[in-house]
Amino acid sequence: MQKLGTRLAFFIFPVSIILYQLCFLKTLNSNSLPIKLWTFAVRIFENSVIWYFPFHINRMFLLSFSIAFFFIYIILHFYLTSCGWKQLKLPAHSVSQISEIIIIRKCSLTLFLYLLVSPIDKEQLGQQNQSVLFDRYTEDDDTTTDTGRTMSSVADSHRDSPPFLLNNENNQESSFASFEQSMIDPENGRVSRYQNTYFMDGGNRFISVRTERGQSVGLIFFSPGIFFYF
Amino acid sequence: MPTLGNTSTKAASHISRVFEDWLQNKLYHQNYNDGLERLPILEDSVELLAEDVVNKLKSRNSVRGLTGLSRIFIKIRTGHVYTYHQLEDGQPLITADMEDFFQQFPLFVEIIIYTIPKDSDQSFDDVQLLLAVENVTINPADPYHIKEDLQLIA
Fold first, then answer.
1. What's the sign of the alpha-carbon dihedral A122, A128, A129, A132?
2. B20 — contact with chain A (CB < 8 Å)?
3. CB contact under 8 A, B110 and A196
């Protein structure tokens, strides 16, 4: 029964999405049919990601989608700007506007979803390391996956080096890096910087030498009274 | 005897004083601890150094001076003077007139302290600390990191 439900869901969702989008087809701005169709297709594509989302709670899935989106839209953008419009007989700027908006919107949407999912996903991955949802089983053949790998090869690869699992160390590294970046950012006026060097003789003597290098404006920013100079 | 470096904020000067205190202790005890010829700090493991400095910063006396900060990033580099980086204007650090000095003091520990003050509306008291320790001969360009939340209320 459960399997039937899943199958139905996979079938019903796209259909409902298409119907839903058809309702809005009228509201599309452009009068040109190709543009309408293209926007329509994009919307379906975009929404199918959202609707399939519960079935694929996997950050790598969404990340790859947002990357795919990005490239697809970049390519479309260049296609449309170079030759697209001559066929469409539209003013160039309108199409480039459309495609730019789409690039920004779609990529940010998927990235947003990706960020939204990542905490859930991390938790889930911790619990069930083995079942990475990236490989979806095709319905007619239960032993192979979308990517054509067999059950055993999938299991093997997960055991050796789980490619999509986040490894803690990397995560930590990147958090260090972002922390560091935010602190050494010269644009950040709130950061104050202090540098000193101690020279040692190898025994127990040492000398402190002030090694000034772009002494920060932090002092100015630190005292709120002077802050308004800027 | 050490001199205090010039600081841009009170907190940074406090941190630097704590660090100097740590350095002083480190160098002082080094000679008594082992009879082996061993360079202080440079021949210690970076992990241990980092832990040591973090512990020092977590001590009661140190934490007292950190109020009003939200983030601290401390970068420590150590090595032989010849591996010390060039100054900003491209001049080598060691010039002829400094040669004598560096013959006496051939090792360096450089500390850079970045601090961000707390927002006025920020209610929690923890200070985020990131420490990066780099030994130019052991882990050049690959500093060892430790991140800690320092609790100001003991």
1. negative
2. yes
3. yes
